[in-house]
């Protein structure tokens, strides 16, 4: 957030416009796309002055980039800009991607375990005959009972922990087992 209060309307607008351009340019230079930046402006008259306020909302998908941009803006713009604490969330696409990754990992784990069992008995694992996703669970971080419950009073690490998404998946798989002499049996 940034603002300016001046006796002349043009001076208030240009003061904010220069800083807005600097913020946008800094974000673009660090790979942030225009569609991930939203600017809202409010121009008003307060007593005998003109007040221009603006708010820039930037959506980051990389925590490190967010920290770099925020640190740069604080360093270069100082007290003329107020940076709010980040709000963490997961898009529906990111949650769907997490579900897929967890399921694929569960199938891979199942296959590796089946290979190890086959190796124990001197057999080799054949192709999968059936793979079924049985259960998927998702949960977020947690707030320990001794922590304050106001989001503003949490540390950055606590807020990251609370926003971290976790998922697990249970799969059922049937693989073909190739024995000696190329006999074939099924492993459940």
Automatic annotation (TrEMBL):
InterPro entries assigned: IRAK1BP1, SIMPL/DUF541
Keywords: Cytoplasm, Nucleus
Subcellular location: Cytoplasm; Nucleus
GO BP: immune response; positive regulation of canonical NF-kappaB signal transduction
Gene Ontology CC annotation, any one: cytoplasm
Family: Belongs to the IRAK1BP1 family.
PANTHER family associated with the record: INTERLEUKIN-1 RECEPTOR-ASSOCIATED KINASE 1-BINDING PROTEIN 1 (PTHR18842)
Listed name of the protein: IKBP1 protein
UniProt source species: Indicator maculatus (spotted honeyguide)
């Amino acid at each position: 957030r940034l603002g300016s209060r001046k006796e002349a309307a043009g001076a208030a607008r240009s003061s904010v416009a220069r800083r807005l351009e600097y913020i946008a340019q800094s974000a673009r230079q660090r790979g942030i796309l225009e569609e991930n930046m939203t600017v809202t402006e409010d121009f008003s008259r307060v007593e005998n002055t003109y007040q221009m306020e603006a708010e820039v909302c930037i959506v980051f998908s990389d925590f490190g980039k967010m920290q770099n941009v925020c640190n740069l803006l604080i360093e270069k713009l100082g007290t003329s800009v107020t940076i709010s604490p980040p709000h963490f969330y997961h898009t529906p696409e990111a949650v769907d991607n997490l579900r897929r990754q967890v399921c694929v990992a569960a199938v891979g784990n199942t296959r590796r375990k089946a290979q190890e069992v086959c190796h124990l008995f001197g057999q080799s694992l054949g192709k999968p005959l059936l793979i079924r996703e049985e259960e998927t669970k998702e949960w977020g971080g947690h707030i320990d009972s001794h922590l304050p419950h106001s989001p503003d009073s949490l540390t950055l690490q606590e807020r990251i922990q609370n926003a971290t998404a976790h998922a697990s998946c249970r799969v059922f798989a049937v693989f073909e087992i190739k024995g000696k002499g190329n006999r074939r049996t099924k492993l459940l």
